[in-house]
Amino acid sequence: MLKELQLSLSVVLLLACGFLYQLTLRSHCLFCLPFSKSQQGPDALLSQGHSIVFLETSERLEPPPLVSCAVESAAKIYPEQPVIFFMKGLKNSTQLPSNSSYPAFSLLSAIDNVFFFPLDMNRLFENTPLFSWYTHINSKVERHWLHVSSDACRLAIIWKYGGVYMDTDIISIRPIPEENFLAAQASQVSSNGVFGFLPRHPFLWECMENFVEHYNSHIWGNQGPRLITRMLRVWCKLGNFQELSDLRCQNISFLHPHRFYPISYSKWRRYYEVWDPEPNFNDSYALHLWNHMNQGRRTVIKGSNTLVENLYRKYCPTTYRHLVQGPKVSVTRSR
């Protein structure tokens, strides 16, 4: 009888150890509770203040491979933080099937810390300087509306809830160690493709005010990187970067271009070339692939051994396995 009891206890112990081992593999944290997708809405997740946020302001529902890679890589690099993707085309009643019609959506939905929610701009802009602008604007006649509305949404979301906003063509490669930060695209020039702040930061409130006061959708980037740059110059006396050091101003970190833009926009094609040897990007937190410059002209090809293919293999392996196609093609070699 005693031996049977000991055997039963041993089996229970082994099962418990196996469960804990699987839990640590999935969450990288022994005592962290897994995310519950069925019980948490966007407000509950965002209120934690450390979400990674992506936006889709078109009606598109199926993310292309680069967008899938951006989301998957963020989920992989930040396993304990919710990765939230707001999509304008996603309605409250929309139920996308897990089939071949939406492979990327299904792939990303299966990741524990990735969440999809509808993008309700009217509700998002409430109690911000952007609300009156949004309720009076005629989006049908606006130039660059998809980009302008995205510029507005990212300011409002991060101001209300805090966290990190990322463009959907940014591949995360290591955690960002800053709370309040802007990313330099060049010396004394800020981007708005990635930034992070604690909730209710006054810099973002002033950015929203300036967005409305100096609204001009005919000037490309006027509501985006140009806005962030001009407001940063109001807040800070910007100097040049010294080597690879970041700049500090009040409680904002202005991060060196190498943190997110080690390959500048004028050289975006180099991501689609073969490198020998490959760069290690040891000074970067994420890589911006300049998809606006590409416009779908170059894609990731299996077997090409390009820099971007190897980034996919390393940082978004599930996207690479299921969404990247062959066959091999000839590519440019870069020294």
TrEMBL record:
One of its GO terms (molecular function) is acetylglucosaminyltransferase activity. InterPro entries: A1-4-GlycosylTfrase_dom (IPR007652), Glycosyltransf_32 (IPR051981), GlycoTrfase_DXD_sugar-bd_CS (IPR007577), Nucleotide-diphossugar_trans (IPR029044). One of its GO terms (biological process) is protein O-linked glycosylation. Pfam families: Gb3_synth, Gly_transf_sug. It is a single-pass type II membrane protein. Keywords: Glycosyltransferase, Golgi apparatus, Membrane, Transferase. Transmembrane segments: none annotated. It is found in: Golgi apparatus membrane. GO terms for cellular component: Golgi membrane. Residues 197-322 form the Alpha 1,4-glycosyltransferase domain. PANTHER family: ALPHA-1,4-N-ACETYLGLUCOSAMINYLTRANSFERASE, LACTOSYLCERAMIDE 4-ALPHA-GALACTOSYLTRANSFERASE ALPHA- 1,4-GALACTOSYLTRANSFERASE. Belongs to the glycosyltransferase 32 family. This is Alpha-1,4-N-acetylglucosaminyltransferase.
